[in-house]
Design brief:
This is YbaB/EbfC family DNA-binding protein. With 140 residues, this protein is of the alpha+beta class. It is built from three helices and five strands; from the N terminus they run αβββααββ. The chain has a three-stranded antiparallel sheet. A two-stranded antiparallel ribbon has the order 4-5. The relative contact order is 0.08.
């Protein structure tokens, strides 16, 4: 019959190995917890919105500070829409002038570009973000 004889150093090795595995397991659990907390933070941060109101204007900012909504009281809303209509008319006039200079007043290119601008501006939303050419809010 075989007898198993453990040397005292063998048991210390097993204990150190188990302690190492336990520390490794704790490290993995800590990393999982931090990853979960980071994911929850990211999700909550992306949903973050803050609102500011001043003199008839309410703005809503997203988590990056980008403007995501604008609400204007009626007198300001009407003034903004009127100014926007004037600017749109001037934009079409200047695009017409530049295109005519480049391609000729009676060219098909000038006609097509001007028509495209007029059509695009007819249905475009009246407010765009600073530095962007896409609407970010509809006036209410």
């Amino acid at each position: 019959m075989d007898h198993l004889h453990l040397h005292p150093d063998d048991t210390r090795h097993d204990t150190r190995h188990e302690e190492h595995l336990q520390r490794l397991h704790e490290g993995v659990e800590h990393a999982r917890h931090r990853a979960s907390a980071a994911e929850q933070y990211r999700a909550r941060l992306e949903r973050l919105r803050v609102t500011g109101h001043h003199e008839g204007v309410t703005v809503v900012l997203g988590h990056t500070g980008a403007l995501v909504d604008v609400r204007l009281e009626e007198p300001l809303r009407r003034a903004l829409l009127a100014a926007n209509a004037v600017a749109r008319g001037r934009l079409v006039d200047q695009v017409t002038e530049l295109t005519a200079e480049a391609f000729g007043v009676a060219s098909a290119t000038t006609g097509a570009v001007v028509e495209a601008y007029e059509r695009a501006l007819q249905g475009a939303a009246p407010v765009a973000a600073v530095g962007q050419d896409r609407p970010v809010a509809v006036l209410r």
